[in-house]
Amino acid sequence: TPSTATAPASAASREQLLSRLPSPPGRLPVIGHLHLVGALPHVTLRDLAARHGRDGLLLLRLGALPTLVVSSAKAAQAVLRTQDHVFASRAYSAVTDILFYGATDAAFCAYGEHWWQVKKIATTHLLTARKVRSYRHAREQEVGLVLAKIREAASTHEAVNLTELLHVFSNDIISHAVSGKLCREEGQNMVFLELAEANSCLIGGFNLEDYFPALVKLGIVKRMLCAKARKVNKRWDELLEKLIHAHESRPASERGGEESDFIDVLLSVQDEYNLTRDHIKAQLEVMFQAGTDTSFVGLEYVMVELMRNPRLMTKLQAEVRMAVPKGKEMVTEDDLTGLTYLRAFVKETLRLHAPAPLLVPHFSMADCDIEGHTIPSGTRVLINVWALARDPRYWENPEEFMPERFMEGGSAATMGYRGNDFAYLPFSGGRRMCPGINFAVALIEIMVANLVYHFNWELPPESLE
Ligand code: HEM
Description:
It is a single chain. The chain folds into 2 domains: about 1-90 and about 355-390, Uridine Diphospho-n-acetylenolpyruvylglucosamine Reductase, domain 2; about 100-355 and about 390-425 and about 425-465, CATH 1.10.630.10. Helix 8 (about 135-155) runs parallel beside helix 19 and helix 15 packs across helix 17 (about 340-350). It has helices at about 10-20, 40-50, 75-80, 85, 95-100, 115-125, 130-135, 135-155, 160-180, 190-205, 210, 215, 220-250, 260-270, 275-310, 310-325, 340-350, 385-390, 435-455, 460-465, and strands at about 55-60, 65-70, 360-365, 370, 375, 380-385. It has 20 helices and 6 strands. It is globular and about 70 Å long. The model has no long low-confidence stretch (mean pLDDT about 90). A 4-stranded mixed β-sheet has the order 1-2-6-3. By secondary structure, the protein is mainly alpha-helical. Protoporphyrin IX containing FE (HEM) binds near residues 174, 286, 287 and 355. Protoporphyrin IX containing FE binds near residues 107, 359 and 439.
């Protein structure tokens, strides 16, 4: 059983503690184990952990940064529940520092008073079940636009690029939540898409500056490595300033109300939470970062699994078509209650294809014990939820796509998204858990329901050759 955290160790004893943790051979000077992390880190890390790990733990030296990889449900439970208070921080990153106004947003902010405040704003003001419901007409409208494009292609038997359509769809839904009706003016929704992609390139990779913080302290290196991030941040700043300004200049009577967008809400709680202009911009920007790609990847994989499993597509179509009154033009959110197979289908997709397979890295703030191993403070932690969700110790036929396991009577029937089952963590768990679950699931379900209600899907013949 894990014991309580103790005060941080000195550098020497920290190194001593690290040297006792299970770690793979092949560590090189300077880069450490970085060369072992391939193009699909969750896959290579699973294999390395199976070979060299112990008790679900494996220590890698990624550059100068000790990184603990967690690959068992018990160790994940220790990090996200029993010792959540120790592991709820984020490591310093020069890139997120620049992109997110001193990392003052909810996702990249280090643990502390400011993070509590901005996370609370996200969970109690921006992403509540009620707020998410208030955007249903906007979602249905965006779904309508996608359906029109597909209908047009279908009428001439043309293949559609679903990846592109669904990516734009996810981005537009979030643009609408952030800036309401203004999001389409002057093509601002497309600028959001472009900037979110630029951010992903900077954050998503294994960044040199993150692994060699000492390098960043040298002025020249910092200038070189961070120039791109500054450029991208400048463009975000111009766009967000313009939108916030447009909101401020609207009469107060138009700002409140049921369908108020994130900018309206943040402006209205600005004084209560002592938010600066930069805090507001950081928070708006992170919604794109955390919400767009993740939702889009989830949605795209649902369609992949539908096309791979025609029998299951027929079953899902039957459920949706039964539930929608005859002659209705499109499925609306009222029709979705009780669609248990749809719900299970999405859950099973997020099991096999977690959009954030290693979560967002956690960071320990004190020494503490996990499974009899002492983890020193200042350790970065990756939880391999992709590996946990395919581990035969926890799942029957783990590689098989079987939504039924999440249905009544199935082996995972009681598993939900809230991080209570440590073999199933697509949205993580504990203090750092994703606050966007309702938002994401609503977006995915309404789009999928309509895609299967209106169309039969198959891959174009040339893609099968
Ligand atoms: C299928 C879609 C999504 C998935 C799979 C997902 C998953 C995750 C994961 C794994 C984390 C990291 C948790 C951790 O560090 O332990 C996270 C954090 C976060 N997500 Fe999501 N997310 C999704 C959609 C969204 C949406 C739509 C929004 C907002 C509109 C959102 C907002 C956030 C925020 C603000 C955080 C940071 C929380 C923190 O650090 O305390 N997410 N999400």
